[in-house]
Amino acid sequence: MKKLAAVALIMLFFSACAIIPSPDTLTLYTSPETGWKSKKIKRAGEVWPLQQEQQVDPAAISYTFKDHPYTLKDYLAHTRTTALLIVKEGRVLFETYQYGCKPSNRFNSASMAKTITAMLIGIALEEGKIKSLDDTVETYVPELRGAGYGKATIRHLLTMTSGVKWDEDYANPGSDFGRFTDCQLRSQGCPSTLGFLQQFNEQANPPGSKFYYSSAETMVLGYVLRAATKQDVTSYTQEKLWSKLGAEDDAAWMTDRYGIEMVYGWFAATLRDYGRLGMLMANQGARDSQQIIPLNFWREMAAPSAASPGYGYQLWLTPSTGVFFFRGRGGQGIHVDVKQKLVMVRLAAYPLSETDDLFEKAVLWEAVRRLQ
């Protein structure tokens, strides 16, 4: 009876929500370190302050989607949002957590990690550890010499335009992405992750000519980082980004079975620290007077590539200049408006078999941008 009563209370608590994420999905997105190998990124130094003010009433943020009026309060009720933060000029306008999540949760970034990886590439370039974005990958990673990804340039990988044939189908376990995951996590079908990537030699398009979203391209960037910096990605992230960001909490990279950081989609941080990453991008790569991401690289990150007006360096762009976002599967997103110094972080728990409604989230973001 006690167990039934507890279940009834949980259902009552979430009765306003259309669909409750499954426990496995919640674990995947809200506590990834409990199920996967990881390496901790330790925070350091003075915390970048977030000024706490009286929160905006979520019923006061309104938008229309598919001819139906909604508010932020409605949005939280009918989507699988686990946490949401709105920060403007360092002031917290709104912060909330759902499904039992707390400020201490380190949430899975999913593919928002790709943007973080690009930031690290820019730092390594500024330090001279990477000589040029037009260097080929095989210059740094000789194991990929002669392979499709080895012949690609770092810039091609940043813009997802290597042209190497790759199938990113998440629903098909037999796709390149599915087999890639088996290789990394389940020791199936390959000697190593790098060994798996060596086999891709077919060009679907000439390099630089066409955008095609591929997690493999970001993973290869991770190998470039390791080789160029002579450090694992975790220690480089800690030294060059996290210790300078003013993070409030430690973060983590999830790793494959070989201890290699899965930089295309497996970073974990708290909601507020994701907010600080957004603030860093809103401040053109700087925290106060300290330029963490080189300014010229930040400008290139936020500029469309020749092959895609909607994508920069591992960063999703909008038609409005200075408005862009990190994006991760399952509903993760950091939205940035540079002119307003405005950031919205929305985290969620959608299963891999379903997709978040990006269009509704985009309409909500526009409503947030209208806030005074």
Attribute tags:
372 residues; alpha+beta; Beta-lactamase; 7-stranded mixed beta sheet; 4-stranded antiparallel beta sheet; 13 helices; globular; disordered N terminus
Structure description:
This protein has 372 residues and is α+β, with helices and mostly antiparallel strands. It has a single domain, classed as Beta-lactamase, CATH 3.40.710.10. The chain contains 13 helices and 15 strands. It has helices at 2-13, 23-30, 72-78, 112-126, 148-151, 154-158, 176-186, 193-197, 215-229, 233-245, 271-282, 295-301, 358-369; strands at residues 38-41, 51-52, 62-65, 68-71, 81-88, 91-97, 107-108, 251-254, 267-269, 286-287, 290-291, 316-317, 323-328, 332-337, 342-348. The protein has a 7-stranded mixed beta sheet, sandwiched between helices. Strands 1-8-9-7 form a 4-stranded antiparallel beta sheet. It has a two-stranded antiparallel sheet with strand order 3-4. Strand 3 and strand 4 (68-71) form a beta hairpin. Helix 4 packs parallel to helix 9. The longest helix is centred in the N-terminal third of the chain and has 15 residues, at 112-126. It is globular, with a radius of gyration of 20 Å.
